[in-house]
Structures are given as structure tokens and as C-alpha cells.
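Slides due. Your pick:
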Amino acid sequence: MLRFCRDSSVIDNAEGDKLAPSFSCHESDSTACIELCGFADKSGDSYYNISLSMVRASAVQDIFRRAGIPSTRVSVHLMGSFQAAADLSPEKAAEMRKVEVILVK
């Protein structure tokens, strides 16, 4: 899982480093696929949050592409802020600003 700052799709180095195990799994299993689920907190409207989820997931997908993983093996799911409660604390809202990386074998 990669975390993002509010209103951002920038992946810092520490977050990007979390993807290394996914690269290794892909190299060792040529049938493995990756699902990326992009999320947002409730700070924007639904349209903005789904768009932000897409930009975040696309940023992660681009890292996989640059690592040589074909785009046909990476799927993107946009979750927006639909799973976030409206009255989240700042800490809980920060937890919703993420892209989950799921390895599917």
C-alpha cells in the first residue's frame, strides 16, 4: 500500500520503495497480475475524488511499466472516497489517501 499527501499523486521515494516485493514476484511468476486500487479521502466532491484516485493509481501503474511489467498484467480500480466515512479524523483521512497493490496469481 502506498500513501499520498492530501490532493497529491506524487510518490515519494520511501513509498515507491514499497513496490520492490511486487517486482520480485512478477519476475519469479510470469502469470502473476497486479491490481491497483486507488482511494481518496472525503475532502473533495465525488467527481474530484474519483479523478484523484485515477491519477494516483496511474502514477503507480507507470512505475510498474517503467520496471518492465506489461500494462496487460496491471489493472486499475478506482475507489474514490466511497469507502471513507464523512467524519474521519485527520489521521483516518490520511489512511484513505492510498493505492493498494494486490498481487493476483
Strands lie at 2-3, 33-39, 74-80, 98-104. Helices lie at 13-16, 20-28, 46-66, 90-96. DSSP finds four helices and four strands in the chain. The mean pLDDT is 90.
